[in-house]
Write a structure and sequence with these properties.
11 helices
Length: 312
């Protein structure tokens, strides 16, 4: 019986966005600024919601959790990416790679359903205002928000276990800036059919299921809004949904481009560009979208600034 000599992979090399040293320095500055804006924007949003009495509503409760997930989501990838921009050894350990993979899948799925919960919250507020207080109580909101976290991490764990069952022997260069499923599958030297199928099923199911929840909620919302007789009432109702719809469009649009394609060298190259939008741009824009388009948040910010100025 003949045996093959395989080199066991103990670490991976992340090829990143470019191999041009001069461009890497520029990208380091660009992504550092984006990361700092993301952290400051989302932390400020969480603090503002938790400390302002006018923002103690289910909508802002879910928004604070969206900001928290965005912080974790971006922090899972960005620090290592920034380090690699300035390092000659762009390596990540075997355990570190799969930990990053687990967290990434878990946080993406969590964000899917938090966005869906935010749509459901708007449905209850606009379509069933008399029941809103009882149906969306504090305890109900806490229970609802725990479901995406639990379900997301369960999915992440299963997907990572399936990836760990694959053999990686010899070639260890990941054509990406983080440990993502598609480029890792390209490196596997064992049969990837089960993992590939599971990836497409889970990604497709969660994308379409959460998006369907949002879509159905907004069908009822728009139907209810069109029944409002006053133009001012319709405008006010639409304004509470505009920020959420913008965030949903950016997040889901890029993810559909990323995951509903077969893993290949060409798709991985295209996926790196798409990934920049949903890992860096979307978490950075969400606080801006919700603050610039939301009267309550703008008013809360104004009061905080005035309080700080008068305190001096």
């Amino acid at each position: 019986m003949s045996s093959k000599n395989y080199t066991v992979v103990t670490e991976f090399i992340l090829l990143g966005l470019t191999d041009n040293p001069a461009l890497e320095r520029i990208l380091f500055g660009v992504f550092l600024v984006i990361y700092l804006i993301t952290l400051v924007g989302n932390v400020c949003m969480i603090v503002l919601i938790r400390t302002n009495s006018h923002l103690q509503t289910p909508m802002y409760f879910f928004l604070s959790h969206l900001s928290f997930v965005d912080i974790c989501y971006s922090s899972n990838v960005t620090p290592n990416m920034l380090y690699n921009f300035l390092s000659e050894q762009k390596t990540i350990s075997y355990a570190g790679c799969f930990s990053q993979c687990l967290l990434f899948i878990a946080l993406v799925i969590t964000e899917f359903y938090i966005l869906a919960l935010m749509a459901y919250d708007r449905y209850m507020a606009i379509c069933k205002p008399l029941l809103y207080g009882s149906k969306m109580s504090r305890s109900v909101c806490i229970t609802l928000v725990m479901i995406p976290y639990t379900y997301g991490f369960a999915n992440g764990l299963v997907q990572t276990i399936l990836m760990l069952r694959l053999s990686f022997c010899g070639h260890n260069e990941i054509n990406h800036f983080y440990c993502a499923d598609p480029p890792l599958l390209v490196l596997a030297c064992s049969d990837t059919y089960v993992k590939e199928t599971a990836m497409f099923v889970v990604a497709g199911f969660n994308l379409t299921c959460s998006l369907a929840m949002i879509f159905v909620s907004y069908i009822f919302i728009f139907t209810a809004i069109l029944r409002i007789r006053s133009a001012e009432g319709r405008r006010k109702a639409f304004s509470t949904c505009g920020s959420h719809l913008t965030a949903v469009t950016i997040f889901y649009g890029t993810l559909f481009c990323m995951y509903l394609r077969s893993p290949s060298e060409t798709s991985v190259e295209q996926g790196k560009i798409v990934a920049v939008f949903y890992i860096f741009v979307s978490p950075m824009l969400n606080p801006l979208i919700y603050s610039l388009r939301n009267k309550d948040v703008k008013e809360a910010f104004r009061k905080v600034i005035q309080k700080k100025l008068f305190a001096k």
